[in-house]
């Protein structure tokens, strides 16, 4: 999860004032910028994004029939949305580690036994045994993207990428607050201060097609702009010249970008205003900023 711009500035200034080295493992704020991001699936892609409605989360947890999860189910039913999500996530991440590890082990066994909607959490638990993040993950929306679909992730939205390959673009920041499923630093109090306890639809994005063949993934921010071109063999070259710098990334086939022949996985940087003409038989993503 990532802070908004004001939170990032405050957090960075506070850690600078306290003299925490910029490369310290326990530092949360490496810079004073926010970190909105966009992930576009190249293959089938599984992830977690934003909170489920408390009732839906309660139903999922109750289905495991694990006694130590029942207090969380009751909390999710007993309070308004924000309070319910806040209390349960706080309780999960603040619980005794040994007791929570036992709960996660029981929950993982139940997930493996039940399969279906529970299968992703059995897989998470296999990779992170005993981690409270397994239970936290069950509070979030499970999302499956098809190739070409995308997710925009704004400030305060908990998320995780589970399986698949995608093109990711983000603002220039390295500020991340984690709630588990990682060997990296986890700062629970700071996470709970920053996270937005709002149930929301993940909002799967599909590109908007323009007459020149560009397919744009619209987002509410100016720090980046991601689009793609699917180029049929023999088609007229596309002039991608822009007044802003851009990166052109080939993800399928073979694309001629100016003087550069790009195969899948190769990219080229194009300075602002420099001629950029593409042709070929393949797919190319364009990463730039709003002009």
UniProtKB/TrEMBL annotation:
Its EC number is 5.3.1.8. One of its GO terms (molecular function) is zinc ion binding. Its cofactor is Zn(2+). GO terms for biological process: carbohydrate metabolic process; GDP-mannose biosynthetic process. It comes from the Bacteria. NCBIfam families: manA. Belongs to the mannose-6-phosphate isomerase type 1 family. This is mannose-6-phosphate isomerase. It comes from Streptomyces avermitilis. The lineage of its organism: Bacteria, Bacillati, Actinomycetota, Actinomycetes, Kitasatosporales.
């Amino acid at each position: 999860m990532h802070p908004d711009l004001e939170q990032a500035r405050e957090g960075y200034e506070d850690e600078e004032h306290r003299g925490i080295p910029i490369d310290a493992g326990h530092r949360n704020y490496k810079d004073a910028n926010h970190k909105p991001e966009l992930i576009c699936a190249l293959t089938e892609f599984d992830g977690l994004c934003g909170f489920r409605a408390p009732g839906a989360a309660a139903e999922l947890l109750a289905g495991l029939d694990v006694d130590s999860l029942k207090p969380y189910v009751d909390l999710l039913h007993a309070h308004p949305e924000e309070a319910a999500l806040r209390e349960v996530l706080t309780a999960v991440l603040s619980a005794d580690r040994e007791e929570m590890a036992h709960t996660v082990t029981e929950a993982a066994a139940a997930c493996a036994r039940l399969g279906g909607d529970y299968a992703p959490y059995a897989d998470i638990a296999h990779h992170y045994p005993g981690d409270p993040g397994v239970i936290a993950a069950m509070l979030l929306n499970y999302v499956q993207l098809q190739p070409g679909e995308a997710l925009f992730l704004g400030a305060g939205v908990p998320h995780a990428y589970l399986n698949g390959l995608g093109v990711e673009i983000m603002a220039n920041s390295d500020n991340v607050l984690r709630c588990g499923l990682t060997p990296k630093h986890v700062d629970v109090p700071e996470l709970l201060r920053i996270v937005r306890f709002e149930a929301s639809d993940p909002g799967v994005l599909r590109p908007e097609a323009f007459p020149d063949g560009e397919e744009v993934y619209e987002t509410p921010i100016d720090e980046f702009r991601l689009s793609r071109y699917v180029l049929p063999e023999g088609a007229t070259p596309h002039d991608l010249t822009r007044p802003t710098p851009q990166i052109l990334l080939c993800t399928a086939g073979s694309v001629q970008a100016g003087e550069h022949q790009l195969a899948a996985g190769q990219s080229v940087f194009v300075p602002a205003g420099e001629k950029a003409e593409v042709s070929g038989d393949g797919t190319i993503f364009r990463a730039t900023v709003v002009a």
